[in-house]
């Protein structure tokens, strides 16, 4: 069995976010004020892959002698481009303020918070490292190790060019698991507030042979966010791919279908 | 597997909410954005293209100007073009030179044409003059013919006249002969008469002598003791002694006469006091005789060409000397009233002329700043004395040798010895000197100056003795004359307002003021008789003053 | 458990051994963290790089292509197996003409040409050894700061790596910026995907395994990023 719920895969892939880009007002160098720019960004993609146009558009309005790498900011928070756009969006809790308005910067790059991204290769490099780590968790690097470089490239280009089929043609190999032999561990990261992500070794099947569910994972990793036994009201929301999910969903299925292209299940914990 | 559906639904809901609501909008926006961008780009591109085209155009134009062509051909063409351009420049240069030549030639042609026109004009003129000359020639010929005929006629007439003349001459000779004959006859008759007269005279003389002898004989019988003075003696002495006369200062004008037309410049009693002379601007000298209160004109001396400035008798009253503004002095003989000498040589008007003590010598003073001595026998100027200033009056004196004193415009009195050329002595006065006079004893010199003063100078010390002034005494002109009375007790002078002032020299004050003249008084003269005064003014008038 | 990997408990033991050794040798490694431990060390090193002053995009591109070429002739331990498969994938990726047939000497030529002059820069290296639960191996994180406190850019960092490493390593898979697992800040990470294979070969003696694990691993990977391991570490453990 492998990722076979195409509808859900497709829904994950097709998830887009309306974003409005504006240039930081103190960086406008020209007399002319730049127009804001609107884009529908795929949740599964990375900011550097989809903001070429934004860069091209706004760089004309900044001081040509004093500008560096472009970076984006949301309400004072630099956006870590190495996280998928959907994760950034969910973590920003921007659902209520659509379109999501981001401020474009060309100066004062916050290098103690953001990775430098001088080219797409940097994104590719990071993406591949994530894929490799995920495969290491799932298959002890067996599959990615056996893949040809061409497959790596195809995987990457599928993502870069928003080609679902091309991507999944390679990605499905990374999702294989035979009956009885599930993933070794579930690659996931829990993003919770300003804190660093939480990543632990969680197996999809418990020692007693039962499928481990999302609820189990949360209990294992972040028990403090779960509703106390004496109260119904949850103090936190758990969001994956922009959706609140039932806790009984098995992790194996979640990992197969709701992971981002980096093969990680990004779980956002937001306060209610 | 209920959760699958739930998840899918939730995902769809999510997409519906986050995606579907915006996708169309953003797509539309992007389309617009891109199209705007596209337009921007296209615009920029077009601008660039336009710039390029402009540049190309410019280049092409430059190329076109350079002569077009391309590559090797271009080079050749360029070379050819260069050579052609050089040729062209050459041609232009040559053309320029040619046109310059043409201009020069045209100019030459024009000049020639001008010359031609001038020549033609000349020719025309010459032709007309030729014609005129021809005409004149014809006229002349005509005239000649006429003249010849006239000549002929005249010749004939002359011949006729000659004949008549000859005949007349013959007659004349005959008449002359007759005349001679008559004259000789008359002479003969005359001589006969004379002989008769002589004889008669002889007879009368004889009778007279006889009568005289008779009377003498009678007289010899009676005793007579009388010594009569001889008039001859007096004349030889020269200076009449005035002691015999009583000088009185008259107070009445007994006669006023209009002597000359215009100014009367000079008036002078003769040394005997019988007649007087006046000289005026009417160029005449007039002689008058005062009989009682009447003045009779005794004659007019003419010959002067300008106003007469002074008159002077010689002691014998045989000559009258007048100085004239016509630069000359003239001398007339008196009883005959004939002009005897004209002394010319001064180069300006002569203000004064006097006889020198020696016979036949005259001295004159002129505004030409010289004095001249004249010899009447040779009628020549024998000496010229250079005074350096215009002479207004001069006097001669015998008392101290032969001395000339002259009064000048430069306020100087100058003393001259006629035998020496240079001035013996000078005295500087207070004003321009208008007239001079000697006292009768010759010891005191009177000098009338333009500062309205009359100075009396002791000639022994050459010091100003006295100065006579008076209120209202203002000289009327540069040659106003003042004079001593014959006894030297009084000085008389006329003022500019017509008043005559008479000073008592001893008292140094005005003795009398006489008023008759209406015009400035120019000169005056005191008769040797002592009681008759003459004065003249600028308006014709001469006044005779006397008490009888 | 695979031969080259190490459990977290073992890592902790190995780390404490290593710290002990470091203290003994007067090195400056320190233990950090309580439940999740990691080791840190700060040193100053003078780097020679030609990229610090002026970026050279052309040379950069060239080098990028080279490294990919070089990887096909990989001499990295344990990658012989992949060599044959990689060569088939080659044409898709490599665009540099003649790169396939490029000899070592010509490569060196290119390198010497692309590094014509090098400028010495004093840098502060901040090394962190962190255990990766995913790979079950220690991972070397580090940051390099220039004198003015700025991060040394990846390009400069890469060009400072000794030539023979650059020839044998893929730049984009060897060095990546990652979030520090404990600090959350960006750190460069020497990618751990080959560590297990390396250690499998390096360590055969099970008895002294934990004592030597860190020294062995660090002396293998350290030189790539200017981390010097005195010989005393090997002789003392």
From TrEMBL, chain A:
Any one Gene Ontology BP term: cellular response to nitrogen starvation
Residue span(s) of domain Autophagy protein ATG5 alpha-helical bundle region: 121-175
GO cellular component: Atg12-Atg5-Atg16 complex; autophagosome; mitochondria-associated endoplasmic reticulum membrane contact site; phagophore; phagophore assembly site membrane
Bilayer disposition of the protein: Peripheral membrane protein
InterPro entries: Atg5, ATG5_HBR, Atg5_HR, ATG5_UblA, Atg5_UblA_dom_sf, ATG5_UblB
Gene3D superfamilies the record matches: 3.10.20.620, Autophagy protein Apg5, helix rich domain, Phosphatidylinositol 3-kinase Catalytic Subunit, Chain A, domain 1
Domain of life: Eukaryota
Entry keyword set: Acetylation, Apoptosis, Autophagy, Cytoplasm, Immunity, Isopeptide bond, Membrane, Ubl conjugation
Subcellular location: Cytoplasm; Preautophagosomal structure membrane
Domain Autophagy protein ATG5 UblA span(s) in chain numbering: 12-106
Positions of the Autophagy protein ATG5 UblB domain: 185-269
GO MF entry, a single one: Atg8-family ligase activity
Coiled-coil zones: none
PANTHER family referenced in this protein's UniProt entry, alphabetically: AUTOPHAGY PROTEIN 5
Assembly mode: Forms a conjugate with ATG12. Part of the minor complex composed of 4 sets of ATG12-ATG5 and ATG16L1 (400 kDa); this complex interacts with ATG3 leading to disruption of ATG7 interaction and promotion of ATG8-like proteins lipidation. Forms an 800-kDa complex composed of ATG12-ATG5 and ATG16L2. The ATG12-ATG5 conjugate interacts with RAB33A; this interaction is bridged by ATG16L1 and promotes ATG12-ATG5-ATG16L1 complex recruitment to phagophores. Interacts with TECPR1; the interaction is direct and does not take place when ATG16L1 is associated with the ATG5-ATG12 conjugate.
Record function comment: Involved in autophagic vesicle formation. May play an important role in the apoptotic process, possibly within the modified cytoskeleton. Its expression is a relatively late event in the apoptotic process, occurring downstream of caspase activity. Plays a crucial role in IFN-gamma-induced autophagic cell death by interacting with FADD.
Family as reported in the entry's similarity comment: Belongs to the ATG5 family.
Protein name per its UniProtKB record: Autophagy protein 5
Automatic annotation (TrEMBL), chain B:
InterPro entries: ATG16, Autophagy-rel_prot_16_dom, WD40/YVTN_repeat-like_dom_sf, WD40_PAC1, WD40_repeat_CS, WD40_repeat_dom_sf, WD40_rpt
PANTHER family associated with the record: AUTOPHAGY PROTEIN 16-LIKE, AUTOPHAGY-RELATED 16, ISOFORM F
Alphabetical UniProt keywords: Coiled coil, Repeat, WD repeat
Spans of repeat WD: 257-289, 301-342, 343-384, 433-467, 484-513, 514-545
Protein known as: Autophagy-related protein 16 domain-containing protein
Coiled coil regions in record: 36-63, 102-222
Superkingdom to which the source organism belongs: Eukaryota
TrEMBL record, chain C:
Annotated keywords: Autophagy, Transferase, Ubl conjugation pathway
Membership in a protein family: Belongs to the ATG10 family.
MF terms in GO: Atg12 conjugating enzyme activity
Name of this chain's protein: Ubiquitin-like-conjugating enzyme ATG10
Pfam families according to UniProt: Autophagy_act_C (PF03987)
Biased composition (Polar residues): 72-88
InterPro entries: Atg3/Atg10
Region (Disordered): 65-90
Transferase listed as a keyword: yes
Phylogenetic lineage: Eukaryota, Metazoa, Spiralia, Lophotrochozoa, Annelida
PANTHER family: UBIQUITIN-LIKE-CONJUGATING ENZYME ATG10
A biological process term (GO) from this entry: autophagosome assembly
Gene Ontology cellular component list: cytosol
